[in-house]
């Protein structure tokens, strides 16, 4: 009998979730707060991680002052993160 194992996940990781994972790995402050991005309000679960990672120079948003937290993070973006 042959068995196959799925490697990875079917669901894509969002930019917000990636920010949280990176923030936790680097022990950044993840407390929810206001950010500089128009589309990330203070109640967003990732707002603290996004803000801390941006201030640390790890990640950045888009030129239109958005972060697009619900978009799937690409491999290219993850490399830059």
From TrEMBL:
<protein>
    <recommendedName>
        <fullName>SLH domain-containing protein</fullName>
    </recommendedName>
</protein>
<keyword id="KW-0732">Signal</keyword>
<feature type="domain" description="SLH">
    <location>
        <begin position="33"/>
        <end position="81"/>
    </location>
</feature>
<dbReference type="InterPro" id="IPR001119">
    <property type="entry name" value="SLH_dom"/>
</dbReference>
<dbReference type="Pfam" id="PF00395">
    <property type="entry name" value="SLH"/>
</dbReference>
């Amino acid at each position: 009998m042959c068995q196959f194992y799925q490697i990875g996940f079917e669901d894509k990781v969002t930019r917000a979730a990636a920010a949280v994972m990176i923030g936790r790995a680097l022990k950044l402050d993840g407390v929810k707060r206001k950010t500089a991005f128009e589309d990330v309000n203070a109640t967003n679960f990732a707002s603290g991680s996004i803000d801390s990672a941006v201030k640390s120079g790890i990640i950045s948003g888009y030129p239109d002052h958005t972060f697009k937290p619900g978009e799937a993070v690409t491999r290219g973006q993850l490399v830059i993160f």
